[in-house]
């Protein structure tokens, strides 16, 4: 196997990827108007992009707003600039304002239920799954269930995979950075 450094990672084009990924690129272009660089990078794997998108788009007990809060705090903990940028934009699209997004990146929220979610997501990420008992109890005390706990862990795994991929490959960020954040 060849030795490749992160600086050698180029974002593959439609012509560079397998036919199954070309079809996914076409669908992403129709839905989003572009293929995000990190998704394109996953397409180095013939089966990886479809597998990842199926996982990412699976049903969950978390709302889109809750998913974005988890995505943003996990990306902050994992120091992934690409995903911080993407989930700042997506967070705004899901109803968060700049102050709320900044708080989430700091691992807190003025909404007690969201605060419990964000604190647990950060704790799980920081401690590789070994969350503090008080943080877990706070999560349950805010009305979350065991189903929600499983879904938050799955959401963290989704985002951690993307964070690690970007932190290693350093492909260009193709989401606008929030200048005020």
From TrEMBL:
This is Carboxymuconolactone decarboxylase family protein. Signal peptide: none annotated. PANTHER family: CMD DOMAIN-CONTAINING PROTEIN (PTHR35446:SF3), SI:CH211-175M2.5 (PTHR35446). InterPro entries: AhpD-like (IPR029032), AhpD_core (IPR004675), CMD-like (IPR003779). It comes from the Bacteria. GO terms for molecular function: peroxiredoxin activity. Residues 51-104 form the Carboxymuconolactone decarboxylase-like domain. The lineage of its organism: Bacteria, Pseudomonadati, Bacteroidota, Flavobacteriia, Flavobacteriales. It holds the Pfam family CMD. It comes from Maribacter flavus.
């Amino acid at each position: 196997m060849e030795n490749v450094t992160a600086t050698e990672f180029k974002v593959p084009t439609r012509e560079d990827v397998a036919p199954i990924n070309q079809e996914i690129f076409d669908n992403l272009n129709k839905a989003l108007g572009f293929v995000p660089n990190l998704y394109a990078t996953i397409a180095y794997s013939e089966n990886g992009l479809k597998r990842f998108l199926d996982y990412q788009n699976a049903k969950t007990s978390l709302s889109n707003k809750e998913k974005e809060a988890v995505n943003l705090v996990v990306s902050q903990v994992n120091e992934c600039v690409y995903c911080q940028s993407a989930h700042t934009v997506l967070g705004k699209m899901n109803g968060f304002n700049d102050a709320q997004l900044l708080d989430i990146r700091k691992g807190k929220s003025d909404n007690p239920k969201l605060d419990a979610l964000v604190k647990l997501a950060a704790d799980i990420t920081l401690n590789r799954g070994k969350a503090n008992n008080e943080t877990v109890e706070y999560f349950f005390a805010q009305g979350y269930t065991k189903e929600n706990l499983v879904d938050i862990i799955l959401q963290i795994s989704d985002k951690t995979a993307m964070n690690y991929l970007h932190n290693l490959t350093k492909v260009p960020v193709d989401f606008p950075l929030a200048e005020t954040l």
